[in-house]
Amino acid sequence: MIYLDNAATSFPKPEAVYRTLDRFARQDLANPGRAGHKMALAAERALDDARHLLNQFFHGEAPERFVFTLNCTDALNMAFKGVLAEGDHVITTDLEHNSVSRPLRALELEGRITLTRVKADGGGTLDPEAVREAITRRTRLIALTHASNVLGTVQPIAEVGRIARERELLFVVDAAQTAGVVPIDVQAMFIDLLAFPGHKSLLGPTGTGALYVGSRASVRAWREGGTGGDSSSETQPREFPYFLEGGTPNVLGVAGLAAGVQFVQERGLGSILEHERKLTERLWEKLEEIGGYEVFGHRDFSCHVGTLSFRGDALAATEIGGILDQAFDVAVRPGLHCAPYVHRSLGTFPEGTVRVSPGPFNTEAEIDHLAQALAEIKV
After folding, report:
1. Distance (Å, rounded) from C-alpha 297 to C-alpha 126?
2. pLDDT beyond 90 at 248
């Protein structure tokens, strides 16, 4: 199988991730605790080490401000429902994944918040000034994806973050498509809450993710329960990260995530991004040569991650995806990609597009195989 669906979940993982998961599961997979037996202490140490790694990676204020979550969706829900209050106004965009759109829309329908969705341009890039113009006296928060999961366009995060900070607003960034492939400095970019998954470009296993909570954000507890330390208090202890980490965490997954982050650091974000961009650009050029396919988004790959969406003149996206899977052993992602507002803007709703997203282990030969398959499908 040629796997080109890394925007959903990266595959394969680095060998170091597989080895770490196997070793940890066999030797240290106990319930983490800040006191107790050796295995519990080893599990707790794995969590602490991963937090330190993430704090260095994203230039955070402190390791304890990285709260482990089930995934990026979990982290975003924790952010939105932890900081928003009755009557708040939120600014977001039409580029967002449902992980942003659905919780905010649900709060809007309940009458708890008001919501403004700023439109990106035709190629999928947001104008920071449009965000500035949408701010009202009730605005509390700006929520923005770092890169579109449909178009791959990277957004001007630092510029929007500066606007948010100038107006004393909270800034939430969904880094599902960029964490591990585009440099992120939460302090330099004025990010108050950064949500990211472990299973995409950070190359960790599924069921992992984190929410970075900056010191400007006051977040209500998302879940209450055991913390592996303070068992005496009647309510969730206020100490970070335990305040937001009730219950037994996925310590095995976090150990694998740490191994993935270390691989990314060793390979280099710039190297990985350049590799994925080249493969994506190569496919775009092939599609132009073949004809019969419409590619969406900006052609400027300096503002792109390795994601490309297109549709065919003759067949629906789901049909193309099914043929590629069954006849050519190629995995891509057809449909709406959990981002219906993007597709409405593009005019591709409700059928969607075919999304191709190479990863660090894909090759030019695999892109050429896909292009040849698409040429045959067109005929």
Report:
1. 12
2. no
